Amino acid sequence: MWSKNVSFESGVLHLSGIPAAKLAQEFGTPAFFLDEDAFKSRAIAWNNGLRDQFGDHAGTIFYAAKSFISTSVAQWIEEIGIGIDVCTGGELAVALAGGINPARIEVHGNNKSVAEIDRAVAVGVKTIVMDSLFEIERVAAAAKKHGKRQAVMLRLTPGIEAHTHEKISTAHEDVKFGFSIASGAAWSAVQKVREHPELELRGVHCHIGSQIFGSDAHEIATDRLMEFMARYRDEYKVELPELDLGGGFGIAYVTGDVTVEPSDVLPAIGKAVDDACKKYSLQIPLISLEPGRNIVGPTMFTLYEVGTVKDVEIDSGVIRKYVSVDGGMSDNARPALYGAEYTAVIAQRLSSAPLTLSRLVGKHCETGDIIINEIQLPADIAPGDLIATPATGAYGRSMASNYNHVPRPPVVAVKDGKARVIVRRENEEDLLALDVKE
Ligand code: LLP
User: Peptide bond preceding 291: is omega within 30 degrees of 0, i.e. cis?
Assistant: First the structure.
């Protein structure tokens, strides 16, 4: 839940030796604090794990930029030497600004614009993952225009119900993503790609969903995708060289959850690949993965300051303490969107007060602006206390909004006892910058 360089000394949270109160004083609240060393070691663990498991058949770890990206993080990705998965022109722009080698960029998205496709082809990205028949035509046209042969993958829906929240499950049949294997759409896409000499079909891809524990879903997906690769081999007498199994590996948000480590799932995925290769008489393809949440999620916490505390009688004699902090659904939309659960602690002091039923809420004008629906917090919690919520690195800052014209918080990277801003806090000028005065 807490990243590796977070420690508690007499109840006081420290990141890389810096106490919470000092972080708040220097950078303000709310703010995201990123344990840089933890981020890098998680990214390296995936990269090494893939290489150890698959040897010469290891493809690429594409860090899913949607979970969190900034120019500095893109630079780290480049230094570590892994790849990146971008799904919009904006994410591509940040990846390029951070100096990521286009040969390690993979482009996703179910509705890439013609301009986005054009830029991706022009800069020479590694692969574009095809998501619709229209897109195949568009990518072929862009490749022709730039006089290039573009490597592409097909995103397939293998018809798997991953055990995760409905809104973040992506590989059952009734979804907007990819081409269904069962309905024949995937095969039509193969034929369509092959009509275009400007396109080089490298392989197939799937992303089953997000916040998945265990490896069962990835193992089933492996079998279904490789069965499809065998069909391709039977038809065209040549094998597709690449298989990308997407991301989705879960992390611990609350007590009882256990973050998936690469070593927990890679051996099982490796075995599923071997088994499928034997079953369908295929050679082992290059295996790639796209973890986002699993790399960045555990490496950040959000620091808030308590503004008000209110005891509300919710039943006769039952009090719920509403603890309001200076952020909320604008910096963490996940509880409101997915019913996601988090935990929190008072970060700058030890309290020995008894615990009391509390609800951690934000400052937005919505009843649903809840960060933690039910949490036991010390009864002496008061304005001025700092609250830290762990595991907010993925889909926190990246999904932040300006709702109620609240400036989005900064991201502060901390390493070896030193803290520096990598995404600055928005200010009033930023909030007004887009308005056109009549
Ligand atoms: N690859 C593809 C094609 C994806 O669509 C995604 C996530 C990933 C990789 C990375 O998945 P991860 O390893 O981070 O689970 N906003 C939601 C999650 C949406 C994920 C969308 N696609 C949330 O906050 O839970």
Answer: no
Nearest residue CA, atom 8 of ligand 1?
Answer: 247
Closest to 44 measured CA to CA, from 2, 81, 90, 3: 81
Q: How buried is 167 (Cβ within 10 angstroms: 0-12 exposed, 13-18 middle, 19+ buried)?
A: exposed
Cα-only R_g, the chain: 23
Distance CA 349, CA 192 (A): 63
Q: How would DSSP label each residue in 22-82?
A: HHHHHH-SSEEEEEHHHHHHHHHHHHHHHHHHHGGGEEEEEEEGGG---HHHHHHHHHHT-
Q: Ligand 1 pocket check: which of 206, 210, 269 to mutate, most ligand atoms within 8 Å of Cβ? A: 210
Over residues 189-211, mean pLDDT: 97
pLDDT band, very low/low/confident/very high, at 173 (cuts 50, 70, 90): confident
Q: Please state the atom number of ligand 1 nearest to the C-alpha of residue 333.
A: 24
* Chain CA centroid to CA 388, Å: 21
Dump pLDDT digits (tens) for 294-330. 999 999 999 999 999 999 999 999 999 999 999 999 9
- Ligand 1 binding pocket, CB closer than 6 Å: 64, 66-67, 85, 108, 168, 207, 210-211, 246-249, 290-294, 334, 338, 394-395
Strands 12-15 and 18-19: antiparallel
Q: Domains in the chain, start-ordered, CATH in brackets? A: 6-35+298-432 (2.40.37.10), 36-296 (3.20.20.10)
Residues with catalytic function = 365
Q: Is the pLDDT of residue 168 over 80?
A: no
